[in-house]
Amino acid sequence: MDVASKIVLPLLQLIVIVGLAPLVKGFINKIEARFQNRRGPSIFQPYYNLIKLLRKDAVVSETASWIFRATPYVTFISILIIALLVPVLSSTVPANFTGDVILIIYLFALGRFFLALSSLDTGSAFGGMGGMREMMVSTMAEPALMLSVFTVSLATGSTNLGNITSTMVDQSTILLNPSLFLAFAALAIVIIAEAGRIPVDNPFTHLELTMIHEGMILEFSGRYLALIEWASSMKLLLLLTILVNTFLPWGIASDMTFPAMLISFALYVVKIGFFAFLIVILEMSFAKLRIFRVPNLLGTALVLSILAIISLYVVG
Amino acid sequence: MTHQIIVNSRTIDILAVLMLMSTIVLIGSSRLRVCIWAYALRSFVLALVSGLIAYFSGIHHIYVATGVSIALKVIVIPGFLFYIINKIKIKEDVESFINYTLSLFIACGLILIAYYSTQSILTFENVFMRHCLPVSLAITLLGFFVMISRKKAITQILGLLAMEDGLFFAALSTSYGMPLVVELGVFFDILVSVIIMGIYVYRIKETFDTIDTDTLRELRE
Predict the structure, then answer these.
(1) Which residue in the set B3, B24, B122 is minimally distant from A303, CB to CB?
(2) Domain range for A39
(3) Dihedral sign for Cα atoms in the order B65, B66, B67, B71
(4) What is the CB neighbour count within 10 angstroms for residue A161?
(5) pTM, entire model
């Protein structure tokens, strides 16, 4: 890896993740509106929202401590670091030497931990409720996420996402493992829960009975809100990227040449678009679950991931 | 050639795991209709597996079993179950003695038992289709568990059907199916028993105004 690619690749990756994340959100909203016979907002609407929010003043509650002010930056930066740890266009990961998939799980947890803390910090009842719900969801989603990722690690012999991707590309028969199939299903459910999409959480609502993520961020405004919104859309894109590039990594660039990157980018957009479309179909066909039914869904994910790792261990 | 065999057996393994997943849906779902759809899906995958096994092994009589199982288990039996629940207009909820999350974890334990207990057999058997025997045992156990733990008569029928699927799959994957006459007999048995149980469900509903099998205890007085 020469010097140019050391600078170009991280920059490219940051631009893709940071730049495209609101677009994915806009795309999902637009398609969903179309399905409901509405015209829907422009797919660039999330960008307009971010610009509007960045211009506005932030109002901070008098009781809030430094945690409230630090949270947006902690969340945003932890997501940015994850963006450097995930293979996006090339199977080489920019921050290869610093960490692997375990660090990614903990960085997601760090952002969530600070959000939950700050939701309690302002003393607003809604905030605390959202924080508690988020923690309840994550206690079941996190083990399932870990176990399904570890299944992939065991099958490919590495916890580094870049190595996992290149092993998947080199040995295509690995993907035909039934244990990985189970892990894929578990990961798909977890992603829905982590990204706060419909069967678990409704991203559009501000009703007290239903909101989880929206409840936590209710007290944020101005640039703080912009950072958190941006981070949450990046989180969705990153989770989809992990799913796509570990299980369906075909066409990802293995070298830094321009045509390879271009093909890789085109395929990446197609794959992410496909999964975003699947999310839309899922959100169209299911109502949001009652909060006490959510452990049921996540329990299914947990059971699937336990089965994935045990069947890999027993049968191989 | 060996590569082709590995790909074939892995494909069947993945379909087997898909059947296991639809059985987990039967345990984890709280909606009756979802459970019946899950049964139809599992039967469809099972028919697909038997078709593939017939194709890979070149044993033609399995095709007959495939055709009959698509006609019966994917179309007739789910259709009949939907017909019953539409006719008796029951509440859509599945009621259970054990709550859903706990029963999911019990199911997980049963599947693990199936995997661990068949491991010693698998080391002597051929190395192909290694997921099939544990999955078929697991589906049988899960069907048994559903029959024990669920209250409604319809879910108990679904449990029985799951057990039958598991046994059929075990026979199919270990010895390329039973003789054709036996298989046809089993299919016919299943059809007749589902119809009889359906009529029973209808009668229970008529008599007790519910299909909760718990209320059958009232007969003692």
Answers:
(1) B24
(2) 3-314
(3) positive
(4) 25
(5) 0.89
Nearest to B7 among A173, A295, A296 (CB): A173
Domain hosting residue B8, numbered range? 2-220
Q: What share of chain B is helix, strand, coil (3-state, %, to 5)?
A: 80, 5, 15
Looking at chain A, the number of H-run helices and the number of E-run strands are 11, 0
How many structural domains is chain B composed of?
Answer: 1
CA atoms of A107 and A151, how far apart (whole Å): 20
Q: Which two tokens stand for residue A164?
A: 């996992």
Q: Name every residue whose Cβ is closer than 8 Å to that of residue A42 and which is 6 or more positions away in sequence.
A: A26, A30, A48
Q: From chain A, which residues contact B within 8 Å (Cβ)? A: 173, 176-179, 181-182, 185, 293, 295-297, 299-300, 303-304, 306-307, 310-311, 314-316
- Write the single-letter amino acid at B212: D
Domain count, chain A: 1
Using the beta-carbon criterion (under 8 Å), do A303 and B130 form an inter-chain contact?
no
Smallest Cβ–Cβ distance between B108 and the set A177, A185, A303 belongs to A303
Q: With CA atoms as reference, report the closest residue to A291 among A201, A218, A207.
A: A201
pLDDT values of chain A reduced to their tens digit, one per residue, 316 residues: 566 677 888 888 899 999 999 999 999 999 999 998 999 899 999 999 999 999 999 888 888 899 999 999 999 999 999 999 998 888 888 776 677 889 999 999 999 999 999 998 888 888 888 899 899 999 989 999 999 999 999 998 888 888 888 888 888 778 888 899 999 999 999 999 888 888 888 877 777 677 788 888 888 998 999 999 999 999 999 999 999 988 888 888 877 788 888 889 999 999 999 999 999 998 888 888 888 888 888 999 999 999 999 988 888 6
d(CA A137, CA A281): 22
* A66 CB-near residues (< 8 Å, 6+ apart): none
Handedness of CA B132, B137, B143, B145 (dihedral sign): negative
